[in-house]
Amino acid sequence: MAAKTMKSRMPLREAYEAGQLARDVQMAPGSRSLTLSDLLLVEDDGPGARALSLAWPTTWETVAGGRQARKVLHVARPEALGATLVFNGNPARGESEPLKIAVNGHVLTYRDPYGDGDTGVWHHVPVSAQWLRKGRNDIVFSCDGPGGWWLSIAPHREIVLNAPERKAVAGSRSELSVDHGRTWGRGLGPDAEQAGEYMVRLSVRQYRKQGELIGPVIDLGATDAESDGASVAGSVRVRSLAVRATGKKPSGTSVQLHVRTGSSPLYDDASWGPWRACRGGRATPSRADHRFAQWRVTLSTGNPKASPEVTGVEVQARVEPALPAWAKGIRLTDGHNESVRYTSIPFEYERFDLPQLKSLRRKFKLDRVIAGAKDELEAIRRLRHWVATRWDWAPPGHPYPLWDAHDILGRKDGMCVHFAIALMQCALAVGLQARFTFGGFQHATVGGKHQGGHEVTEVWSNQFGKWVYMDATSTRDECFLDRRTGVPLSMLEFHDETMRLYLGTRPAPLEGVRAKAEKRSPRLRVWSKDNARPTEGPAPVRLRWGPVYWMSRNNFYARRRPEPIAQGRVHWCWPGYRVWWDAQTPRKPWFDHHTCRRSDLEWTINQVRFAAEYSDEPGVVTLRLSTVTPDFETFLVSIDGGPWTAVGDSVPWRLGPGGNRIEMRVRNRAGVLGNTSWLELEWGA
């Protein structure tokens, strides 16, 4: 067959979402360009951070009169587009004098903009980027008032527990003076004997040195390069391959392109070749018979204030397809090929075979809890309701509960965070992937009442092919469904509806949101407790799901630390969370890991992506199966409605005259099945 030219120019926003990885790059909300990430957090308190709380044992510094606090932050590259100083604390009750802050000798005054008496909140103060120095930067806090201000302290022991690699420097960058700054010592706190770091951070607006976007896999054998792949192709020989990026490269910046090729529809080490640099826009496939290709664009800068901009990537291939004569008698009658969405978060999954999960399943008879459920959603709801009815919400006493359902379920106290952890690990115990997520404005009021935050669980639903929001707190015990489709919402979808209800299209200020009354959504239905069906009326939506956050792992049995200190008991301080931002939701300058890429938070698992290819033998179609399945056990196929059979990643499918159907799915090591891809062909043999 004659060679043909195949072009792929997916809109960059689509490629950004459909690609395999976006590391240290961003497509900011509303932007049409890919740039380097432009926000960097400088901190050394994070691993041991726990905010000031009068209701919970903590440590803090009083800054008043002759007592001054000095924080040293080290900045590698002081050139910046802007900077924000953030600190955790609050004025002492009744204190009216401002806090004085000296940044490398430049003095500014700061007054509490909140004034609601809340303790241990994050304050943010813009500072001139010109004040920053390479290396050591001194920030000194003082107050002339009698009560002064309180600054939170991250204890040295907890910093080192969560980040042993910081042992050499932990506690060496915070100092206290009791004589108006004439002398300084490292002993902190009321007795000047505590070791730790003041919770003071610097958010610097500057571009990362380097980042990369790995685009989606391109099928060079498809008649339509952007089809979903539910088709059959012949083998191909790649004669030439060219890749071109469009955009801007300011002075001191660069863009490099690489390509790799392979024989499977998703990347894996065994069937794909290495990255090869594009020279003059040309690339060489690892093998001429590789049907699939993928590009990588790498952005670099030597100037922290400038980034290259990429507006598009185009792939053009000259391929020679080979279609056997018998394939002319084939007609595609139906097909569904799952598309895989990748996260850039290096999420760490718990293994299903861990003794703690097996013990949890056995000890609490979780199989009985879900026995008889008519579908997976009912099983998840039963599990949620079971957790929600183990105890009544109550602030826990000492010691604070571990990230361990055994510990939590053995107590009779706990808050939303503990219900969420228990549900996450109970779901894992029965083979369902789950993750911990939470949200809340730092300051939000409804009818004058402070709203606070809330922690919940998301469970991966094989039934719906998405993450679904589940609140196992005893006072809630609910999930939310789209009224039209009946599909449960994810956390990010719930965030979208919360912002629409309370803000319309307006952006939310960092200082928080005030509403006169709680809103209800006619678009949603709430399904509470063990009710047989969802409530018919509009669902109540609390003002909590503006800023939303995710833990980047669920493997707290395999590896306890690092973990947030007293999660849920005090304001969120740990910098390891993954934080969502969009046009309405600003980035939080006290956190580091922000993303505006939906796939980073709504990635898919437990699905089969296949590639079907005619073989030379008449009546045989070869299927290459790929998946992203945590704790994967095997692929399964069913032919023409027959039994499910375990197979490898390459399946020879022998067709018979007339209609033929093959279904494909995965099974994880806990025995849970993923959803199904399928292909139907009619052969007029």
Distance between the termini: 22 Å
Strand content: 35-45%
Q: Can you give the mean pLDDT?
A: 94
Shape: globular
Number of domains: 4
The whole-angstrom Rg is 28 Å
Biggest sheet features = 7 strands, antiparallel
- The counted number of beta strands is 46
Number of helices: 9
Report the helical percentage: 10-25%
Low-confidence stretches: 53-57
- Which class of secondary structure composition applies to the elements? mainly beta
Give a brief description:
Helices cover 11% and strands 37% of the residues.
Helix-strand layout with pairing:
Elements: E1 4-8, H1 12-18, E2 21-23, E3 25-26, E4 35-36, E5 40-42, E6 60-63, E7 68-75, E8 82-91, E9 99-103, E10 106-110, E11 121-127, E12 135-142, E13 149-155, H2 156-162, E14 174-177, E15 196-198, E16 200-205, E17 210-214, E18 218-219, E19 232-233, E20 235-248, E21 253-262, E22 276-277, E23 282-283, E24 292-301, E25 309-322, E26 330-336, H3 355-363, H4 366-370, H5 376-388, H6 405-409, H7 416-429, E27 434-439, E28 444-446, E29 449-450, E30 454-461, E31 466-470, E32 478-482, H8 491-503, E33 513-515, E34 519-521, E35 524-528, E36 539-541, E37 548-550, E38 578-580, E39 593-595, H9 598-601, E40 608-614, E41 620-627, E42 632-639, E43 645-647, E44 650-654, E45 658-668, E46 677-683
Parallel strand pairs: 19-40, 28-33, 38-39
Antiparallel strand pairs: 1-25, 2-17, 3-4, 5-16, 6-13, 7-12, 7-14, 8-11, 8-13, 8-16, 9-10, 9-12, 13-15, 17-24, 18-24, 20-23, 20-25, 21-22, 21-24, 26-46, 27-30, 27-37, 28-29, 30-31, 32-35, 34-36, 37-38, 40-41, 41-44, 42-43, 42-45, 45-46
